[in-house]
Specification:
about 240 residues, alpha+beta, Deoxyribonuclease I, Chain A, six-stranded mixed sheet, 12 strands
Length: about 240
């Protein structure tokens, strides 16, 4: 396989713009997106309640995908954090702590996924809302994502970066990766909040041997109400090696 589809989506705990928690709406959006690999942020997983309330398990079961949870904190009796869904199984998965003292716990979920003969290292990231917090997280990203010695395959870093100021996080990742060619593929990059987009929070960064062929925010009546974010979707291809 030389082409595949990826998406990143902050689902806001399944709470839509109407204030109601309806995880089935998120499922319907994901079915429309039809991505092979999806990174989700703000996912709640209650282990002892209905299947819909373990959101990761529910979405994976309904889609027929594998899933991995990167717990950042507890939310009552639930596990809260990042979730990666994949059409293909995970060869490895681990949580990377990106928390800053005094701020809400944050993290990145790394999953290693084999696509044909290639290995993808997918980093599902959700960063903090404060500028100083993200400066510290930029250094953690440099250490744990960019300079990690056990990453022999292709890296994809995507998620909700909360970096609307294009600060140190954006500069650090842009130096290492190709920033998504969003300007070349999208009529506008601002997509948050979904109903009245003012900021660009969701990003995708690709290793040098990967390229984006098309990218879009999945915007329709359903996605505009399902969460305060829109899914960012990209068609990715492996570059032909000379």
């Amino acid at each position: 396989m030389r082409n595949f589809r990826i998406a990143t989506y902050n689902i806001h705990k399944g709470r839509g713009m109407d204030g109601r928690v309806r995880i089935e709406r998120i499922l319907r959006v994901l079915r429309e997106v039809e991505a092979d690999i999806v990174t989700l942020q703000e996912v709640i997983n209650h282990p002892e309640r209905s299947r819909e309330e373990h959101q990761a398990c529910y979405l994976a079961d309904q889609l027929g995908y594998f899933y991995s949870v990167g717990e950042t904190r507890k939310h009552g009796d639930a596990v809260y954090g990042n979730v990666t869904l994949s059409r293909w199984g995970f060869e490895a998965a681990r949580h990377i702590d990106l928390s800053v003292t005094g701020r809400e716990p944050r993290g990145a979920l790394r999953t290693d996924i084999r696509v044909g003969q290639e290995i993808l290292h997918v980093f599902n990231v959700h960063l903090g809302t404060a500028i100083r917090e993200r400066r510290t997280q930029a250094r953690l990203i440099d250490e744990h994502l960019l300079k990690a010695m056990d990453v022999p395959g292709h890296r994809i870093v995507m998620g909700d970066f909360n970096d609307w100021t294009h600060g140190l996080v954006t500069k650090t990742l842009s130096r290492e990766f190709h920033l998504t060619d969003l300007a070349a593929h999208l009529p506008r990059t601002r997509a948050y909040p979904a109903l009245l987009p003012l900021m660009h929070l969701d990003h995708i960064y690709l290793d040098h041997e990967l390229k984006i062929e098309r990218a879009r925010f999945h915007r329709n009546r359903l996605s505009l109400v399902a969460s305060d974010h829109l899914p960012l979707v990209a068609e990715v291809a492996f570059r032909i090696r000379q």
